[in-house]
Amino acid sequence: MSTRALRKAFPEPRSVEAPVQLSLAVAPAGSPPPAGPPAACVTQARLAPAVPELWLGVHLPQCDPALLQRLGVLAQRFTPRVSLEPPDGLVLEVLGSLALFGGVARLYRAFRAGCRAAGAAPVLTLAPTPLAALVAGRSGVSFKVLEQQLLVSAVSALPLTALRWPPQVLQRLSRLGVYRIGQALRLPRAGFARRFGKDCLRMLDQLVARDADLRPLFTVPERFRAKRQFVREREHHTEILQALQPLLVQLAEFLEARQCGITRITCRLHHRNEVHTDCVVRLAQPEAAAARFREWFAERLGKMALPGPVRSLELRSGELQSRTPVHESLWRPGEHGGGGEAGLLSGSQELIERLRMRLGESAVQGLRCENSHCPEGASRPVSPLAPGFQRGAGVRQVTAQPVRPLWLLEEPQLLPERKGWPQLAGPLRLGRGPERIESQWWEAQGVARDYYHATDGNGIAVWVFRERRPPHRWFLHGLAG
Amino acid sequence: MKNVLARLLEHPGIWRGRSFTRVETLSTGFSELDARLGGGWPKVGLVEILATHLGSGELQLLLPLLARVTQRPQARWCTWIAPPLNPYAPALAARGVNLARMLVVRTSKGPQRAPEWATEQALISGACDVVLTWITQPLKPRIVRRLQLATQRGRTLAFLLRPWSSRVAQEPSHALLRLGIEPDHDGVRLSILKSRGGMTGQWWLALDGARAAVGG
């Protein structure tokens, strides 16, 4: 809404404001208060919404996101217009459903029974606006207002804190002596908007149905689920995979139609006596191709030991994720200078996924330099799919560092000594060194070493160190490569 | 006359025993080695490197190549499969290897023959420029041939790093190139055990020589 439109909708009768307040100020003490609210205050009369509404507010005393989701699904049995108000509330528009459920009281009872079955004991309220229903629920009062005309007087008694405004706004209002919604509604509009922001004013308008309150509707997240029963039991992996194929094709079509991909698929294999095995495939990026799914299930199923023959299959998808189809390049990477950025990335991702599928999640790693004086701490494995890794984030340009070996041992290896001289396939010949590496004094396991480049009896270039502290042992720590 | 003869000999149907077959090459970073190999490492194909010990200098021999390949703007992965120890990131970065294009694949927890399987997958995926694989177990010639064919499919250069024993040196190989390497005073002694159309021989190579060739 532009400023002009806003001004048109809420005219600022500054000239009117002063005389009205003046008249209030000069009114004799015994005279009755003005009948309606003054023209310039927040409850300025405006058109009520063209279509009347009735909202059922649900407030959970203990906030529980999973329960809220469940109640959202339950509420969809009563009306398609359900909106969640995280973390602890939801509202549903029920005016259209009253006739079907046989009146307010019956609908109320039916909803409460549904909640009890779901293990929830929420506070239920009824109001012509969603915000009023929510606010009444938060204040914990029994609140059933069916008519628009009664709304303002009903919400006036509710505390302002239930609107969940920012604490500083509530604090400033309390300094003005305004604690209840009714008091806030009587404040002058222009001043209210100036002092506490237009958002708060809009909320008050929405509360008393003078402004549209548009809420995103709750939709149940879509999942794919398909089942297949066999006439005879299947024992071999190839047979199971064959039976799985049509389901995978269905899944791919399902995803294609929604332009989505999934990163998690579960295939439940049912055996005799209610026993089942779950085969879970996790992917690094959203995927929607049946051929890929099949390949991964072949990989997974081939490794699994099943407790018995399989009677039926069930395929369940994880949450759908939006997927941007990448365009493949005409040439394969490395061919005729082909391989665009997108093609290159998707190909490399696929390789990582395939290797992980068989060798384990941690089998594929990237490397990163760390700022550390301790040689062991300066090189760290990272996930190659970590954000920024492939763009070289965190790669420090190493400049003018002493020569380091290309291989580092996991743990320094103790070297035997003969006549006080370290031995590795014969006596070591020390070369460049010593380079002293000491860790910070505040570290518990302090490192104090003198490193040498040396050559062992076979002529291999190695990196060894001698402890600075007694017993001055020698250790092998790296190979030059 | 000589010109005409040279043109005639360029005919693809003519193969001469001592001439280098015309394959695309990548410089090794060592000018002497480039000359001996007829231009450098093949751009696509399988190269076997047999080392007497781990750390004989085989990695330093490959470093100039790895640095150049990973620094290219459209570089694919440089994949290390089943390395026997931990590659040390600061040393690699200091020698110019772009760590963001490097993958390390550990196969110790995988099934048997996991290094070979992972190598084949990396090769046929077409997502790698260079694949280095350390294999200590004996390899069947059939598997080496399979890997060589896989390099053609993914247009990748693969290095198999294996221990050098007399038995391994004698077995036939389908690799394009087979090098033996052993440490020698401040350098390595290299032997070409097999090359297509190239020569064989043995000579000493200074590993520090690479720095001048790479330019830092």
Q: If you had to describe this structure to a student in words, what would you say it looks like?
A:
The complex is a heterodimer of chains A (481) and B (216). In chain A, strands 12, 15, 16, 17, 18 and 19 form a six-stranded antiparallel sheet that branches. Chain A is 31% helix and 23% strand. Chain A folds into four domains: 55-207, Alpha-Beta Plaits (2-Layer Sandwich), CATH 3.30.70; 225-322, Dna Ligase, domain 1, CATH 3.30.1490; 365-400, no CATH class; 402-479, no CATH class. In chain A, helix 10 crosses helix 11 (198-207) and helix 12 (237-258) packs antiparallel against helix 13 (290-303). With 481 residues, chain A is of the alpha+beta class. In chain A, strand 2 (82-85) and strand 3 form a beta hairpin. Chain A contains 14 helices and 19 strands. By secondary structure, chain B is α/β, with parallel strands linked by helices. In chain B, the strands form two sheets. In chain B, strands 6-4-7-8-3-9-10-11 form an eight-stranded mixed sheet, sandwiched between helices. The chains are: A alpha+beta (481), B alpha/beta (216). Chains A and B meet through helix 14, strand 10, strand 11 and strand 12 of A and helix 3, strand 5, helix 4, strand 6 and helix 5 of B.
Keywords:
heterodimer, A: 481 residues, alpha+beta, Alpha-Beta Plaits, Dna Ligase, domain 1, 6-stranded antiparallel β-sheet, 19 strands, B: 216 residues, alpha/beta, Rossmann fold, 8-stranded mixed β-sheet, 27% strand
Order of helices and strands of chain B: HEHEEHEEHEHEHEHEEEH
Beta content of chain A comes to: 15-25%
**CATH architecture grouping of chain B:** 3-Layer(aba) Sandwich
Count of all domains of chain A: 4
Q: In oligomeric terms, what are we looking at? A: heterodimer
CATH topology of chain B: Rossmann fold
Helix content of chain B: 25-40%
Task: Assign an overall shape of chain B.
Answer: globular
Number of domains of chain B: 1
Number of strands of chain B: 11
Unreliable segments of chain B (pLDDT under 50, ≥5 consecutive)?
A: 209-216
